[in-house]
Automatic annotation (TrEMBL):
This is IPT/TIG domain-containing protein. SUPFAM superfamilies: E set domains. Residues 230-295 form the IPT/TIG domain.
């Protein structure tokens, strides 16, 4: 049967205390979500038995009360020879985005949950405490960081750098994420039957006590810490304006991530276009992405880079990748000079290029006809070289000319 009931109207949550009719059986607290006219159970916390004169006696929750501005649930316990009051934090964490972050630190984490209300002075309305995020719990080397962009359901915090001793553990098990709306106060209280401020309990994501580093939640939510990926090469290394080119990236440290991106950019100060595409994980040494449509051909030099958490890109740096524009010109040596002979074999390499002089190569699907126009530019008389000359052969007259053929 229910012994007490309280409603957190701001979060649309109800709390109920239940007690068994059976003697010597501990009761429990339950949390309910109230959404769209429906009530659903979200979590449960079992209460404890208290030893009274050697007999296990159940505590009974006689009253519940919600301090909405302070984000605290208070409960009074009876049933023994003493009255006890316990306080439970109502700040809770449901998830974090991104779910992984670079070990170098600096990734801004969105912490989603409920009860992220900044406490204010009742008279002046001024904030009493900053809201803090803690990454790594009590064992973390770096201290908590102040949150920004605070709403009732989310806060944003830059994640701290991982030290070398804990990086292997946190890349596998994840790094705990906690939040305090009471700043960095050192006072601690406990909820339920926690005997020390370092003991923490949860009920379906609800934090029920705090740490001795302040009123921090304990949600069981963690962010995985990963090393930066490394790109060694890509194939192909160019694509067209229309996009759709599937690019294979070869390197190290690729991992599956919903926030992984490929970035197409140029460091040229005239560049105005930066493009992004989801990165697809294949295995730790291979990944793929599809080049998006571009408005402009890339400027020299242009690159492709990768981020696993959507924010921090490769530590080793990007590799070259060109987005090629439409055919605009020919690229070849300006002058190819040879001495005229009865039969002169001329080797000329010609490329189709765009307006940024990127070679189109396979991206140019048209058949091209290239015309070479010979020119006579030099006149040195060596008669023995020109016994083959005939009148009207197309070369300048008289035949005693050392003519250099120039293709332009």
């Amino acid at each position: 049967f229910i012994t007490a009931l309280a409603v957190d109207e701001e979060a649309s949550i109800a709390f109920a205390a239940f007690q068994y009719q059976t003697t010597g059986t501990a009761g429990f607290l339950e949390k309910f979500f109230m959404r769209d006219g429906q009530i659903t159970v979200h979590g449960q916390l079992s209460l404890s038995l208290i030893s009274v004169a050697g007999i296990a006696t159940a505590e009974v929750v006689s009253a519940l009360g919600v301090d909405s501005p302070g984000r605290v649930l208070y409960a009074t316990f009876t049933g023994t020879k003493r009255l006890r009051i316990a306080a439970f934090l109502l700040t809770e964490i449901h998830s974090v985005v991104p779910a992984l972050a670079d070990q170098r630190g600096g990734t801004v984490i969105e912490v989603k949950g409920s009860g992220f209300s900044q406490l204010t002075n009742a008279t002046t309305g001024a904030p009493l405490y900053p809201i803090y995020c803690s990454f790594g719990g009590l064992t973390a080397t770096a201290g908590p960081v102040e949150a920004t962009n605070i709403t009732f359901t989310s806060v944003f915090c830059p994640i701290t750098q991982v030290d070398n001793t804990s990086s292997s553990v946190e890349s596998c098990d994840g790094q705990p994420v906690d939040v305090s709306v009471y700043g960095m106060t050192g006072t601690a209280f406990t909820g339920g039957t926690a005997a020390a401020s370092s003991r923490r309990q949860t009920t379906g994501g609800v934090s029920l006590s705090v740490t001795n580093r302040g009123y921090f939640t304990y949600s069981g939510i963690a962010v995985r810490r990963v090393q930066s990926a490394r790109i060694e090469s890509v194939s192909p290394d160019r694509g067209g304006l229309a996009g759709g080119t599937v690019i294979t990236l070869y390197g190290q440290g690729f991992t599956e991530s919903a926030t992984a991106l490929c970035k197409f950019f140029s460091n040229n100060p005239r560049a105005t276009e930066v493009l992004y595409a989801p990165m697809r994980f294949v295995n730790p040494t291979v990944a793929e992405c599809t080049q998006p449509r571009a408005e402009f051909a890339s400027l020299e030099e242009s690159f492709i880079d990768v981020t696993l958490d959507g924010q921090m890109y490769t530590e080793a740096g990007p590799v070259n990748y060109e987005i090629v524009g439409v055919p605009a010109n020919l690229s070849s040596p300006e002058v190819s000079a040879i001495v005229a002979r009865p039969q002169s074999a001329v080797s000329v390499q010609v490329s189709i290029v765009d307006d940024q002089r990127h070679r189109l190569g396979r991206l140019d699907t048209e058949n091209r006809t290239i015309c070479l126009i010979p020119n006579i530019t030099e006149d040195l008389c060596q008669e023995g070289l020109f016994t083959w000359r005939e009148e009207g052969d197309g070369y300048p007259w008289p035949p005693c000319r050392n003519n250099t053929l120039v293709l332009s």
